[in-house]
Amino acid sequence: MAHSAEDVQKQVRVYLSVFAALAGLTIVTVGISYMHLPVPAAVTFAMLVATLKGSLVALYFMHLIDEKRAIYSLLGLTAVFFVVVMYLPAAWVTNDMRTHPLWDKLPTEGSAPHTAGAHSGAAHEEAASNEEGGHH
């Protein structure tokens, strides 16, 4: 805790520096959106900047920089879960997860799910006319 006026001024300077860094990183984030990067690269850069901004907030404004080892252990565990959650969409896009047998049973793009005995109107009429011997 700050006890003297000098300590308070030092803390205020730190907070203002963190604020300036957060403002600058926000400008960087907006700049990334105007760079017309491929979506994976843009998301990667934006997530890196967001992680840095979140770290600054957690360390200085939430005072985690002064905490003990248990807090850092929990923060590390959170980071591990974050990486796993970020991997899931990447795995989906790269087709790692879509090779699971469960996904083979789902309808593909462009195909409508079928129910037993149900036909669309045009398909039903065509099937009926073929059975009667008529052709369209």
Describe the fold and architecture.
By secondary structure, the protein is mainly α. Among the domains are: 12-66; 68-106, no CATH class. It has helices at 5-33, 39-61, 69-93, 101-104, 121-131. The chain is elongated.
Summarize this entry quickly:
The protein is mainly alpha-helical and 136 residues long.
Topology:
Blueprint lengths: L4 H29 L5 H23 L7 H25 L7 H4 L16 H11 L5
Helix pairs in contact: 1-2
* Tertiary shape: elongated
Strand content: under 5%
| Largest sheet report | none
Mean pLDDT, nearest integer? 78
Give the SSE string. Answer: HHHHH
Number of strands: 0
Which percent range fits the helix content?
55-70%
Measured on Cα atoms, how large is the radius of gyration?
A: 28 Å
Low-confidence stretches: none
Distance, first to last CA: 87 Å
Structural class assignment? mainly alpha
> What is the overall number of helices?
5
